[in-house]
Write a structure and sequence with these properties.
The chain is an alpha+beta fold. It has 3 domains: 46 residues, no CATH class; 114 residues, Translation factors (Elongation Factor Tu (Ef-tu), domain 3); 150 residues, Nucleotide-binding domain of ferredoxin-NADP reductase (FNR) module (Rossmann fold). Helices cover 19% and strands 28% of the residues. The chain has 7 helices and 20 strands. The strands form 6 sheets. A 6-stranded antiparallel beta sheet has the order 10-9-14-7-8-11, with helices on one face. Strands 18-17-15-19-20 form a 5-stranded parallel beta sheet, sandwiched between helices. The longest helix is centred in the C-terminal third of the chain and has 16 residues. The protein is globular, with a radius of gyration of 20 Å. It starts with a strand and ends with a strand. The structure holds flavin-adenine dinucleotide and NADP nicotinamide-adenine-dinucleotide phosphate (NAP).
Amino acid sequence: MATAVSAAVSLPSSKSTSFPTRTSIISPEKINFNKVPLYYRNVSGGSRLVTIRAQVTTEAPAKVEKISKKQDEGVVVNKFRPKEPYIGRCLLNTKITGDDAPGETWHMVFSTEGEIPYREGQSIGVIADGVDANGKPHKLRLYSIASSALGDFGDSKTVSLCVKRLVYTNDKGEEVKGVCSNFLCDLKPGADVKITGPVGKEMLMPKDPNATVIMLGTGTGIAPFRSFLWKMFFEKHDDYKFNGLAWLFLGVPTSSSLLYKEEFEKMKEKAPENFRLDFAVSREQTNEKGEKMYIQTRMAQYAEELWTLLKKDNTFVYMCGLKGMEQGIDDIMSSLAAKEGIDWADYKKQLKKAEQWNVEVY
Ligand SMILES: Cc1cc2nc3c(=O)[nH]c(=O)nc-3n(C[C@H](O)[C@H](O)[C@H](O)COP(=O)(O)OP(=O)(O)OC[C@H]3O[C@@H](n4cnc5c(N)ncnc54)[C@H](O)[C@@H]3O)c2cc1C
Ligand SMILES: NC(=O)c1ccc[n+]([C@@H]2O[C@H](COP(=O)([O-])OP(=O)(O)OC[C@H]3O[C@@H](n4cnc5c(N)ncnc54)[C@H](OP(=O)(O)O)[C@@H]3O)[C@@H](O)[C@H]2O)c1
């Protein structure tokens, strides 16, 4: 049995915000999470043990037996497929980037009535209304789930997304709007939405409540980490009480595009010993050499500490967002590993096998 603890969370106000019919639960500036009892499956029984060895050099830390998160029998995938999607309802859709931010990102909540049994770290598919240029239904697009399994209302009956509106100019100078992201960002409360999934096991949370969890997100890549962090810091579970270290690095272009900042600051107030928070605001900050502050630039400032943490068996790194970030992060890791005579590519393979290096970039 698990309960959602009472937490008040502000979403930035916006003139273009749409609010749901469920005004008794959500107010425009604040979502109040009341204590809601619910049933939570104990999932530890079906886990499989995986044995991983890392013998890269004599100095590379050996990996020990640990419980696989990916083999967990309780993780549901593909319950709903494109031919018979689940029809959810939009309950809330609000812009969470400032009006001067480059681009718009929206936070939205859909009803599931508990029919989509997702876990933190999974994604859902969305099929936009309408047809494509060939008159065929649109193909699904994947979106990382931004809510914990309990959902934003704490009743396990909703799923939330964090979606960037895709708008770009093509070779002919025409403005092109991405099909599904624009469909989602324009959704009004009360509207139906076709959902598939849930899918994905790569980004599932580690089971160990004492783990060090290093989260590296750019832009909407924050979604799975909001989901993790709500479970860690805003909820109470009989079978999970986080007492490790959660360290979030978030890269965004401007301070007006910092996503869920107030929530994360609230978490930091609640658990200063267990939560570290570092932002990389690329168009406003630079490092001491005057270089653009990308997520990997911020990480480099803690390089030694991160490397030390990475050598622990219960440290798990998660990366989500722009594809480009992966190379930058690999570059830092390569130089740190090389100092100890370790080949990063080999070592990363071992970490991946041990489910300690988890990447979902696009
Ligand atoms: C596992 C996974 C999780 C994801 N999670 C999220 C998430 O949480 N939030 C989120 O916002 N997105 C997420 N995405 C991305 C999402 O699935 C969509 O790809 C995105 O919303 C764009 O879809 P669309 O239908 O709006 O654009 P489409 O209509 O599909 O258009 C996209 C296409 O436009 C073209 N294009 C895009 N930009 C440009 C450009 N600058 N110049 C020229 N051509 C361009 C490319 O051909 C691209 O394939 C995720 C993707 C994956 C794989
Ligand atoms: N699981 C997934 O696969 C998944 C989940 C969620 C989102 N996504 C995708 O992730 C992307 C996030 O985009 P967004 O528009 O939400 O982000 P955004 O708000 O534009 O923020 C992206 C940040 O990353 C910076 N950046 C650009 N190139 C980088 C690089 N090589 N290394 C490190 N940082 C870099 C950007 O800096 P500058 O712009 O200043 O250069 C900006 O600060 C989207 O394409 C989205 O579809 C994928």
